[in-house]
Amino acid sequence: xxxxxTPNYPLAKYTWLxxxxxxxxxxxxxxxxxxxxFLKTNKQPIILLGAGSNxxxxxxxxxxxxxxxxxxxxxxxxxxxxxxxxxxxxxSQIAKVALENxxxxxxxxxxxxxxxxxxxxxxxxxxxxxxKDCLVEMRTLSFDGQEKKYTDFSNxxxxxxxxxxxxxxxxxxxxxxxxxxAQIQSVMDDYHMRRKATQPQGxxxxxxxxxxxxxxxxxxxxxxxxxxxxxxxxAEMSSVHANFLINRGASGNQLEDFVLWVQQQVxxxxxxxxxxxxxxxxxR
Length: 284
Ligand SMILES: Cc1cc2nc3c(=O)[nH]c(=O)nc-3n(C[C@H](O)[C@H](O)[C@H](O)COP(=O)(O)OP(=O)(O)OC[C@H]3O[C@@H](n4cnc5c(N)ncnc54)[C@H](O)[C@@H]3O)c2cc1C
What we know:
This protein folds into three domains: 6-71, Uridine Diphospho-n-acetylenolpyruvylglucosamine Reductase, domain 2, CATH 3.30.43.10; 75-183, Uridine Diphospho-n-acetylenolpyruvylglucosamine Reductase, domain 3 (2-Layer Sandwich); 200-281, Alpha-Beta Complex (Uridine Diphospho-n-acetylenolpyruvylglucosamine Reductase, domain 1). The protein is 25% helix and 28% strand. It has six helices and 19 strands. The chain has helices spanning 32-41, 91-100, 116-122, 181-198, 218-224, 252-270; strands at 6-10, 22-29, 46-49, 55-57, 62-69, 76-79, 82-86, 103-104, 125-126, 129-130, 135-141, 147-150, 167-174, 177-178, 205-208, 231-232, 235-237, 244-247, 279-281. It binds flavin-adenine dinucleotide. The site of flavin-adenine dinucleotide has 30 residues, from strand 3, helix 3, strand 9, strand 13 and strand 15.
């Protein structure tokens, strides 16, 4: 099968913030072979799109090809205490399969609304655990179609994966142990309640806007700068959790301008440069 690309494809619907222009070309790639074949001949820049829960696409859209990982990349194969997962798998699905198999250590993934690919990109995590803590092997393809596997994750850190400029195709994840279903479920329920109590619900957001600086909380610094609940032109820093950017009708460029202004405010008032956690992609 040859990968079919659609020109001038609207991307906003694929993102949690619901903004952004069109991709020059867009395709959903269903098999590993299809992807490899495409990479051998492709000459255009490529951007991978997961669940769009950590990106802000600018109004001018994305140059080149935007790819989403389809069917074959959404499978989970359980082998003992390891899960072999395609990078298009939802993190919530990994947590669900782990629960069904009484494997613990994946509870933190249950409410992170991204895919494994997006999670690998940022070493997503919550409640003191991150993807790195479960990783045994990461499977990748270079943009010219070369396969490579990684097994050393010692230099990964908080929201940091040092490997970039490649396609994450899958990973082997290992449970931290065996537990009764009810125990795993109760940990998930606890995490879920804690999120509900501290994070905005049912809004257009991309999760944490900025990374926490070492030993500090981005949310607290934003709050101290008077930005909790601050809004302008349809962009808002949540009144529930100051580090959550909410879109109430802004465009991609307006959201980015707002976030950059917020970043400047914190620098001026607290002397701390907040590094973006959200990925801003595309042309202005
Ligand atoms: C309500 C809410 C709560 C959240 N809570 C958390 C949380 O607790 N912890 C946390 O860490 N994050 C959290 N996030 C942010 C987000 O869900 C995670 O960062 C998630 O891992 C992003 O995955 P995604 O599939 O949506 O990636 P996308 O947003 O689609 O992409 C993010 C980046 O990853 C790249 N990428 C995606 N797939 C691949 C691939 N296969 N190969 C190479 N690069 C790829 C993209 O090009 C992009 O640069 C939250 C977001 C929301 C909206």
